[in-house]
Amino acid sequence: MSNRYQEVFHSVAAHGALGDGKTDDSAAIAATISAALAENPENTVYFPDGIYRLSAPVDFPASLDMVFEDQAALLVDQEVTVRWESHLEASLHPVFTGAGRVDGHLNNPQAYPQWYGALGDGKTDDTEAFRRALRNSGALAIPYTEAGYLLGDLPICEMKTVFGCDDQLSRIIGAPHCRHLFELKAPAIKISHLFLDMSGTGESVCFYFDVQKNQPISHEQVSDIVTEGAYHVVADSRLDKRTEHVYITNTVIDGLVCRNSRQSAIRTRNFWGFIFFRNILLDNSALTATDGNYAAMEIEDNEGGILQNIRIIGTGKAENDREVGFLYTCNVATWMDQCSAEQLGSDGLRIQNEGFHLYFSNVSFRNILGHGMNLEGCLYPQIHSVTVEAHPDVSADRYGILGDRLIDAQLNHLSVAGYPEAGVFLQNSHHNIVTGLNVTGAKNPYVEGKNCGLNVSLLS
Questions:
Q1: Do 162 and 91 share a domain, yes or no?
Q2: Number of alpha carbons in the 13 Å side-chain half-sphere of residue 124
Q3: Total count of domains within the chain
């Protein structure tokens, strides 16, 4: 055993703890804690190298510091609960082991999964170690390991912070049984600085917002994340918020890179109010045309969302009506600025099942095999400074901007190139104003089909 602090701190060995992994050291450790408290409530208790078996409950009070040598650990017997509130000083090695339970909250700014047995070897399932660490601390710091941590589902039911704590993004590998890697069930959860390899999972979600009846979720932050091979990166539970009174509000998704998602990278159906998606890259360029058989970003039933600086890269390999960049369904008061989509088998942006008061500015859709913007059932949209460029093989029945049941829209400063028939085509549309339209490569800049009236087009 090391005697580094034997003469300075209250050592459990001095009170009879053997640390042999067999003898019950509960009484000796409890006696050490009592002696330390009696001398000074802010004292330090020292654990030399050894495995200290606890066969009875022990309380580790908040006022004390616990110092563990590099080979020192607690072995908590099954059906024994230890109450831990102390500050812990230890290296990145297993401190809490055994089948028993550690309750309480570490008096540390953060906990490390290694203290609970995580190996980070990319092979051993570290899920339980992560769950125990999350239960005992407000912040989980994940050190970088080259192989990464193999993880299943991590439900987070309280305000927590989870982050990679080294310069390199901490690597997490989704286990085959993983369904919801981070399952957010409470407000004010922050997750950042991670690389998530989900290519070995099934229909999984990296960040799953699990709203419950009458339990809104707010002030979530997900930032500085890279994903590979995810099924969904961001998704949420599907409840009717108008009858169930559930919301996901005041939430920021920032600095997200999603490569080769196997379904819509972002699929939100219950977000409502001050939702920010910004600085995001959704890159499916390495997939085959048949793999990209979905919308890259799908937003449904959103009110008050802000999309900023989002770039979508599709497969661009074949015409495919399902490969859409942005898919809007039944949205209200949603803003898009400085966003783009390219190399898509179908539409750059598609609005379906009606949208109200939607705003688009400084957006571009390039190398598109479908419509640049397909606006179906859209009321009062504001569309400014849009650039649309078709794929060379685009079909004749595609348009830079298609409006069907487009009502009271303002479309200003539109640049459309490469669509053979028309830059803008409206049908079943009324009371729209199209100004500053610059079209190249089309027979007609602007065409009205059936059931149109009171539209105004002022070409450049």
A1: no
A2: 10
A3: 2
